[in-house]
Write a structure and sequence with these properties.
Number of strands: 2
Distance between the termini: 50 Å
Number of helices: 10
Strand content: under 5%
Order of helices and strands: HHHEEHHHHHHH
Mean pLDDT: 87
Structural class: mainly alpha
Helix content: 55-70%
Strand order of the largest sheet: 1-2
Low-confidence stretches: 1-5
Radius of gyration: 21 Å
Shape: elongated
Largest sheet: 2 strands, antiparallel
Amino acid sequence: MPPKAASPRNLHVQVIEELGGLIVGGVLRPGDPLPGEARLAEQLAVSRTVLREALKVLAAKGLIETRQKTGMRVRDARFWNHLDANVLAWRCAAMPTEDFVDKLVEMRAIIEPAAAAAAARRRDPAQLAAIGEALEAMEEAQTLDDWAEADLRFHEAVLTATNNELLSSLFGVIETALGTFFVMSARTAKNFRYSLPHHRAVYEAIRRRRPNEATAAMQAMIADSRANMRKGKKTA
């Protein structure tokens, strides 16, 4: 049987992925013009209808703009929707720069200690159990991938235990970036389980309903992770 032709929907996603990755990865730089619609559709081997839909998505993410006379251009990074899941994924795929990692650490330092304190005040037994199960999975992890997956579950469970749907929904936005950060941090350590004591301290503070201790434990975890990455970079 001949291979199945890609559906318009799949082609639409492919165009978004290709152009978005080129822009966020720096191959297409701010101010760079995109070819005209007909030429670009031909280059990407898609219909102009598929291309238009993909360009609308990229424009909504703040990556491109269309102006009369000058046509389509890549927008400056300050206009990008940096918390968009796709933009974060493309940023991570392009190997996070030191600056991006620093900004991610800063975001974590603002959000996660406060979330840990809220979880210590508001968590219910089932939410505490979910944090504990993630911690147990981290303890039993045999590979870096297993560790990173369990680490993500731990932080998601802490945000869920805040019982603040705005905070818990934030995880879905930053999941890709956090996952990449956790893998990078663990990879630079001699033993990827090095941060287990910090995770246990966060869990114990939430279990004992001690918000100040939960805040301090999460702050220590984030600071230690960043210090470990800096140390790994110097010895690389």
